[in-house]
């Protein structure tokens, strides 16, 4: 089995968009096989304890940029690495629209998109942008339904994606009520947090 290496570059806290953009270009130059952003509207300040994010009491406002808009540009500025978000929050967008967005970015990138999908977990994303936070179970129900709609829409778009888009469901749920989502899955492992010497 071939091991491939991906990196996740958070927009939260970057000095400006150009710095974040250059980090993407540099990651590909260093040989990263996949480059991911995130789908948070505000940077979560967390510690990872036993694989579970523990939010800090203070959640300050810092520079941040929207992930899907940036992802389209990544398709133009990279040439080899696969690209995606870890992960796109299902409650934030119509699932059929997400499928269309994914197909479009797949074409922009020449068939290099990985579609990471999740149920959403960070309350600030929901509250600040007017989405219903609900319960873990309601978000998981929405996730399961949305995943089925995305899979259906990807098969019925014209034109279709350039390749069968790898779909990586990651529920964003650590509760006992979580269920296994429909598996049309990418065989990837997402390390929860690795902090660089620079504090990124």
From TrEMBL:
UniProt keyword annotations, A-Z: Flavoprotein, FMN, Monooxygenase, Oxidoreductase
Pfam families, per the entry: Bac_luciferase
Molecular function in Gene Ontology: alkanesulfonate monooxygenase activity
GO biological process: alkanesulfonate catabolic process
Residue ranges of domain Luciferase-like in the record: 11-156
Protein name from the UniProt record: Luciferase-like domain-containing protein
């Amino acid at each position: 089995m071939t091991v491939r290496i991906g990196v996740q570059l958070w927009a939260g806290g970057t000095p400006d968009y150009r710095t974040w953009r250059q980090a993407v270009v540099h990651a590909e130059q260093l040989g990263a096989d996949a480059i991911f952003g995130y789908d948070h509207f505000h940077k979560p300040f967390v510690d990872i304890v036993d694989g579970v994010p523990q939010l800090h009491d203070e959640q300050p406002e810092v520079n941040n940029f929207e992930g899907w808009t940036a992802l389209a540009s990544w398709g133009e500025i990279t040439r080899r690495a696969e690209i995606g978000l870890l992960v796109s929050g299902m409650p934030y967008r119509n699932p059929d629209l997400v499928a269309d967005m994914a197909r479009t970015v797949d074409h922009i990138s020449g068939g290099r998109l990985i579609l990471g999908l999740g149920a959403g977990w960070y309350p600030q994303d929901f509250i600040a942008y007017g989405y219903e936070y609900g319960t873990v179970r309601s978000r998981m129900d929405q996730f399961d339904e949305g995943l089925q709609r995305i899979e259906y829409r990807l098969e019925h778009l014209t034109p279709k994606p350039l390749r069968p888009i790898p779909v990586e469901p990651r529920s964003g749920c650590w509760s006992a009520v979580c269920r296994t989502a429909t598996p049309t899955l990418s065989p990837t492992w997402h390390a929860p947090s690795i902090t660089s010497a620079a504090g990124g």
